[in-house]
Design brief:
Structural class: alpha/beta
Largest sheet: 6 strands, mixed
Order of helices and strands: EHEHEEEHEEHEEHEEEE
Oligomer: single chain
Number of helices: 5
Strand content: 25-35%
Helix content: 25-40%
Distance between the termini: 16 Å
Amino acid sequence: MRLGIGTGSTAAHFVAALGARVRGGLTVVGVPTSEATRVLATAEGIALTTLDETPELDLTIDGADEIDDSLRLIKGGGAAHLREKIVAAASARMIVIADGSKHVATLGRFPLPIEVVPFGLKATEIAIAKLLKSQGLPDDLRLRKIPNGAALVTDGGHFILDAHLGRIDRPEALADALNRIPGVVEHGLFLGLCTGAILATAEGLVEIGQV
């Protein structure tokens, strides 16, 4: 199987479990969605490839920061949503594994990550704020930083503006509008990509969609 391998705390547990299966004889080749996942997968002995070498994948397994009943997601808490979305879009299926607390009625409680080019940061931030206001959303944008106070830099060399919106009633409209802003590289709204989810709840595993 050609497998996209996600990023984040839940995905790290999956990498460890996958490594155990590989050592038991399972044959897969994986495309990691971040440098952190690449390091973990290599340590587990999982064979890796790239999308240039293997541009079509069978399945991606990844986590989510939020997921609704329509399998719409917010991702990017781990600052890897650009690569995660590229890998998911190259996959025939995407299955989310997540804690039940990530299941929400309406997206937006988790801040929406918006990956932007460092050049012209202020101009891009103003354009995003105007867009949010036009859609009746708060224009509360915060540059994501690392503990020493410097801007976080993604694997792609970009910055992240986290939009604290509270709720997103029209995620498709917001996604389309963000895609039209020069300077925006990608955002954390994953729409039409996830085909199923397995959520861990106090009552046991809950499945949504096709898994």
